[in-house]
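Design job #97: recover the sequence.
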């Protein structure tokens, strides 16, 4: 399953929803990957600020090989980025 959180505006909770959704899948014993597509790398910063996450946090240009992939997008993403 692919899950993406998209908004035309920043600061609406896309990163929080992305991280919590990834934890939801992980806690139910699913293989999950979180893709950090934001320009300020919020998911990577959040991961580095604590004990880390029990699932990989990657960039959009890295392979997506998990059963469930959760995408945290930048604010107002371009159509080409969403299609990719």
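Job complete. Output follows.
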């Amino acid at each position: 399953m692919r899950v993406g959180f998209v908004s035309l505006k920043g600061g609406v909770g896309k990163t929080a929803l992305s991280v919590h959704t990834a934890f939801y899948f992980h806690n139910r014993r699913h293989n999950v990957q979180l893709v950090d597509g934001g320009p300020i790398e919020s998911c990577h910063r959040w991961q580095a600020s604590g004990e880390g996450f029990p699932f990989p946090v990657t960039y959009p240009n890295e392979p997506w090989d998990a059963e469930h992939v959760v995408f945290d997008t930048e604010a107002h993403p371009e159509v080409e980025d969403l299609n990719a």
